Amino acid sequence: MRFVGLLIVSLCSFVAHAQNFNDKLLSDDYNRCVQASEQKAGLLLLCIQREYGVQKEAMQDGYDEAMVRISEKKQQRLLEEQPLWDLGINASCQPYAQVGGGAYAEFRSIYCFTHAYAERAKQLTKMR
Predict the structure, then answer these.
(1) Could you read off the pLDDT of 30-52 as tens digits, one per residue?
(2) What is the rounded distance in angstroms from the CA atom of residue 64 to the CA atom of residue 71?
(3) Of the CATH numbers 1.20.1640, 1.20.120, 1.20.1260, 1.20.1270, which one belongs to the domain with range 2-126?
């Protein structure tokens, strides 16, 4: 019975987190998807999973464009820095996906990665 209670609380937290959310860093499609999800956990997960792909691609595009645009010295620094950035993000976001954490833990983990990719894409785009 205690497990069922925890599950209900986690699901309610998950829905409340996603529903009242309008993230300016993420795409308009993501925000519309969240609003249209009608607080259904499965639909909210689909929204963030889709946005994950969008932001990961934006980060990769930003990286590729930066490597063309910046000096050789900065290219070398970026080549060394990016794997360390990846390690840091994995260390920060992976703990959200706790074993047995359910839909809310999965959402938080994917959201953490998605938001980090969006931030990194923004940084890479500004590199000169």
Answers:
(1) 999 999 998 788 899 999 999 99
(2) 13
(3) 1.20.1270
